[in-house]
Specification:
Layout (H helix, E strand, L loop, with lengths): L8 H22 L6 H5 L2 H67 L1 H5 L5 H26 L5 H13 L10 H17 L2 E2 L5 E3 L2 E3 L5
Antiparallel strand pairs: 1-2, 2-3
Helix pairs in contact: 1-3, 1-7, 3-5, 5-6, 6-7
Amino acid sequence: MASPLAPAAGPIALVSGLVFAAVDVSRLLAADKSLDRIDMMRQTPFQVTNALYWVVFIGLVLALVSVYYRLGDRARGLGAVAFCFALVGTLDMAGNMWFDGFAGPWIADVAPGAILAGGSGMLVIGGLSSYVLFAVGWMVFGIAGWRSHMFPAWIGLLFVAAGILGYNAGLPPYGIPIGLVMATLGWWIIRTGARLTASGGQRVSGHAAGPRAA
């Protein structure tokens, strides 16, 4: 896959993953549990870290896309399925986090009763979809990436575990595992130089292999 993102996939995944995990740590530290929910949502550190959490979702998406450009040809159709599942789940959760980061503080100021009342109807459906699709998306990415030899089995298993924990990624610290596994994938790409060779053969862990049968 010819894309300027492909050569930079390793550094992009490494940096994006580490920053993603770091921001989720900052959210955990900024949540003052001694305050009630509304007062906590009005605190500047809480608002800033929640807004930043949406920003780092952009980096996570860019990392996913760049990794797919770098490694996706190894996996063919199965890799495309894995990529699509992870992309849909991440975009859905990113929308949820935008709401929390930007709409939530405004609602806490003008209509705190709406927050205390809890969700219902379409709001519940939308929220649940983001949790489920995010978790399932990264689990499928891990399994399909492993089975299609897009990356090693141990990285695939880490993605599955991070996806399970990621069901609660809207709350810190459950986003940290996804960030750390993405960073690990970036480190593996950098260390091994994993890429497709110009001749169509595959290089896995720095060793060339023959072209894949159709």
